[in-house]
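Aggregate trends can hide what the representation actually does to any particular protein. This step matters because it turns folding into a mapping between discrete strings. For completeness, the protein is quoted in full, as a sequence line and a line of structure tokens:
=====
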Amino acid sequence: MSKYKKFQKDKNNNGVDDRLDLITNICAVVLPFTTIDQLYIIYINKQTVGVSSITWLLYGLLSIPLLVYSIKRKEVPMIILNGLWVIVDFAVWFGVVLYS
């Protein structure tokens, strides 16, 4: 037994340190919002130069199976992450189509 074992918690009994669960939950919510600047440029400035509609459409479409998988596995952080990515990806794609 490691001397650090007593500092690690595992309330969910899933073999994962609760601190890692917390970090994962925070990242699952924050990560999709890193695209806010892209959405701002598209919807507020109405600039789509250099933004590929095909790329963002594929991002959105390929996020759907990941969301479904997350739901089937009942992994809440992954459901949040993939659900937000589906929304953000399609929002960028729609903005590019709208303003191009």
